Amino acid sequence: MSEKVVEKKLTKSDLRKVFFLWETGTETCLSYERLMSLGFCVSMAPVINRLYDTKEERAEAMKRHMVFFNTENNWGAFIPGIVCSMEEDRANGKPVSDELINGVKIGLMGPLAGIGDTVTQGLVKVVLLAITVNMALAGNSFAPVIYFVAYLAYILGVGYFTFTQGYRVGKSILDKITDSAIIQKVTECLSVVGMMIAGSMICTNVEIITPLVIETNGSEVVINDIVSSIAPNLLGVVATVGVFMALRKGVSVFKIVIAFVIIGLICSLVGIL
Question: What percent of the chain is predicted at pLDDT more than 70?
Fold first, then answer.
C-alpha cells in the first residue's frame, strides 16, 4: 500500500512572520555587495523552516535568496509574497527552478521600485509632511504624532496588501504553469528583463570620467569624448565587467575594493582619472 504524500502548506502565521521580517529587516541590513539580499533571505526563514526538512535543503534555499536584490520596501512586498508561493510549489515537487525564482525577483524589483519610490517618497511623504509641518508651525503639538501614525498606517497597509496579493497571484499563476517549455520561456524572458535592468543600472550609477587631454598639431583631443562616442559610460561598464570577472574567479570583495582604491589613487596622481 502506497504511502500518502502530505502536501506542504504555508500557514497564515508563517506568512505574517515573513511580512513582519520583510517590513522590519530589509532596510536595516543593507550591504554594498548585495543590498537587500540578506534581509530578503532572513524574511524567507519561516518559509524555509516550514517547507524543507533537511539541513541541506534549507541551506540550498538560503543560498538561493542571497543573490543581489534591491527594491522599494512597501510596493516591493509583492515580490516576497509571490516568492512564498513559488517556494511552496517547489517544496511540493512542482518544476520551479532556482532560475525561475530569481528571474521573477530580478524582473519585478526594478518596476516595483520605480512605482514605490515615486508614490511613497515623491507623493505620500511629501503631502503628509506639507500638512503636518504647517500644523506644527501653527502650534499644533500633535503634528509629529499625526505624521508618524499616518505614515506608519500607509506603510503597513500598502505593504501587507501588496504582500498578500503577491502570494495570491503567485498561486493562481503557478497552478496554471505545468509545461516545462512554458517555464523555460518565462525564465528566459525574465532573465532578459533582469539583464536589461542590470545594464541600465551600470550605465546610470557607475560613472567613470577621464580628464585626459592629448594635444596634437595645436588642437586638443578629449579622450573622454572619444570614449563616450564609442559607447556612453564605457569606462564604467569595463570596470563593472572587471569586478564581475574577479568575483567569478573567487576574488574577495575586500581585495577588489582595495585594488580599486589603489588604482584610483595612482590614476588620479598621473592625471588619467
Answer: 86
